[in-house]
Design goal:
There is one protein chain. The protein is mainly alpha-helical and about 450 residues long. About 50% of the residues are buried. It starts with a helix and ends in a 9-residue tail after the last helix. The chain is built from 18 helices and no strands. The longest helix is centred in the last third of the chain and has 37 residues, at about 310-345. The mean pLDDT is about 85. The chain has one domain (about 1-435). Helix 3 (about 50-70) packs across helix 12.
Amino acid sequence: MVNSIKQKIHNLIYDERFSEILTGSVWALSGRIIATAVGLISSIIVARFYGVEIVGIVAVINTFLILVTIFTIFGTSTSILRLIPEHLAKYSFTSAFKVYRKTQYMVIGTSVITASIFFFGANLIADKVFSKPHLSYYFALASVFVVFKSIMELNIQAVRGLRLIKIFTLMQVLPQTCNLLFLIAVGLFWSASDVPVYAVLFGFALTGTIGWIIMEYAFKKRMQSCDTVHSISKRTIISISLPMLMTATMGFLMSQTGILMLGIFRTEAEVGYYAISVKLASLTTFVFAAINSMAAPRFSELFHSGEIEELFYIAKKSAKLIFFTTSPILAGLIFLGRPVISIVFGADFLVSYQPLLILIFGQFVNTISGASGYFMNMTDNHKMYRNIMIITAGINILLNYSFIPKYGISGAAIATMASVCFCNISTLTYIKIKYGKTTGYLPF
């Protein structure tokens, strides 16, 4: 068995057809590891010096911004990942830049309008939705930074589309690094309890600004006057993006409904405990995202070039890489999760261990499913994936609503785990039925 695993890993590493994705994944993974480590350091500082209630407030504000920016970028963060490689393969850098610029202006416009609505509705959100009027100031403040967060998300994906691996690595690290530096620098001279909230928002603002500058330079140094340009209308961009918006919205609901509903039904402290469970269980997602960041543009390129066999070859290899890199992390969390929580966050946070175990099972199912979601979005199956995600999100909301009032953070974890399993199994089944092959991987 051990020799078999060694052989599988050897074949994966020394496969020339997969070398570009493997090399890129190493860079992207390094960035995710650094970003996660820096993020954990920030979380530890906040938990130790500011308390569990501030951890909960930061989690709610983060979730609020994620939710708002899903709608302000309306699926373009995924569609741009498909459109840029497509235009590079068929036309030119200038053509790809025209698509990016048009998308960028659309995102800025929707961000300004949406931010204004939420700014003036902050009191209503805090009072009527969360039943916590004291959070209205933070919701209003977060609304001001919606534009920066939206541009940041768009540019991170656009960099992936251009395959600028090292720059993508940098942009992954920037938000958490800026957050930590601000947290330390300001925290030393200012004793206000809400410094962690300002630190998070500052990280988004700086990353959004730097990302814009990088994208301008990256495109313009490659563009030529003789480039072939294929014009694409805003209507076309929207028609591709909207199903992906629904997918992203449902994905958000799957990952964040637990935090939101705990914020509604339970105390800020319980939100904080659950947020720690989610953060630890999500340690595998940075590996998953790193590999997919390199695989997704390749999926789009191969599909639009008609190389279906090569497409499934790359998808299967990506799934193997995901499995062998994430399984040890999950095993480590199972056996070492309790002492890690106690040492790193404090004994008061040991209540986070039980929901962590539940979430780990869902992450394992996610791991063995490979890059099924990105495969669907990059291969013109985005509408079917949207439908699967809508059904999954409905199940997730129903389960959270049923379990949280009675079981608290464990109920939120069960709802999330069940939803993740349903989504992945449904997606793999559809791919198998349509193509006769699967993107998942489970040894033996």
